[in-house]
Amino acid sequence: MARFQPGTRTLDYFSPTTLDDAFDRLSARNVDIVAGGTDFYPARPQGPLKSDLLDVTRIAGLSGITQGTDGWRIGAATRWSEIFRTDLPSSFAGLQAAAREVGSLQIQNAGTVAGNLCNASPAADGVPPLLTLDAQVEIGSARGTRTIDLSDFITGVRKTDLLDDELVTAILLPEPPAHAQGAFEKLGSRRYLVISITMTAAVVGLDDEGRIDHARVAVGACSPVAQRLTGLESDLIGKTLDQIEVTEAHLTPLSPIDDVRGSGEYRLDAVAEQCLRAIIQAGGENG
Predict the structure, then answer these.
(1) What gap in Å lies between CA 130 and CA 138, rounded to an integer?
(2) What are the pLDDT digits (tens) for 111-126?
(3) Which part of the chain has CATH 3.30.390.50?
(4) Torsion sign over Cα 49, 16, 38, 184
(5) Torsional class of 71: left (φ above 0), alpha (ψ -120 to 50), beta (otherwise)
(6) Nearest CA among 193, 53, 80, 74 for reference residue 138
(7) Tens digits of per-residue pLDDT, 216-236?
């Protein structure tokens, strides 16, 4: 434990090595959880810190990617660079592509998967590809462990389902279809180091006749929370890649805003094209 004093109040910095110690700190006092810390200062209001800090990156078992009988487990403190360097199934290609888009290499080496989710930005690069992989979030506390769908975990802009005494321990992914492929498309004002204007992830599988039999499509930066386009997914089933189309009706769940990066109308036009590109890219690789 380290101590620092911004202003008049001495604050504590905890860096436990076990989950039990972390849960004890969460239960006993007001703390802010940090992992890579890449978003901690940019996202917080100006002024001195008011809470102690709990660094979870040294907790045993909270990092790494493993495969089990029920699917895949990504530890909450796993770095983005580890994701794109790991040999993963082809369905994870979209997630790995997104991992290469999370800021600079320095950010990718420090930023964590769970941190990206808990930051709950509408433009978080990791959320759409994780949604296409049917991700669940494992949450722990001194009271026990619970699991929640990622689609229910992020509840709004900068808002999650986490309680004050809880922390994310892992991302859980079911075993994807062996024949499916993933893809990720991101639109920004430049190639790297940019907040997304729109982004789309897709996981697509084709049967022996070249018809889509598995489809997941998710869009970020076009609504308060990234979300899957389930209507589009349903309409893709049974079609060949040259038969697919993305209509205005497919995009009705989205509610893009006007801001300095682009208008809502522009975002809808862009994301329709992104969906087509991501679906064709994912489907084309296994066709």
Answers:
(1) 14
(2) 999 999 999 999 999 9
(3) 181-285
(4) negative
(5) left
(6) 74
(7) 999 999 999 999 999 999 999
Strands of the chain (E only): list them: 2-4, 11-14, 31-34, 52-55, 65-68, 71-75, 136-141, 144-149, 154-156, 159-160, 167-174, 181-187, 198-206, 212-220, 227-228
Q: How many CB atoms lie within 10 A of CB 69?
A: 5
Q: Where does CATH 3.30.465.10 sit in the chain?
A: 65-174
**Is the torsion defined by CA of 115, 117, 121, 127 positive or negative?**
positive
Confidence of residue 80 (pLDDT cuts 50, 70, 90): very high
Confidence of residue 285 (pLDDT cuts 50, 70, 90): low
Kindly report the pTM of this predicted structure: 0.93
Q: In terms of CATH architecture, what is 181-285?
A: 2-Layer Sandwich (3.30)
Tokens of 281: 């890219």
Between CA 184 and CA 282 the distance in angstroms is 9
Q: Which CATH class is domain 65-174?
A: alpha beta
Checking if the pLDDT of 279 tops 70, the result is yes
Per-residue pLDDT, 287 = 44
Cβ atoms of 155 and 161 within 8 Å: the answer is yes
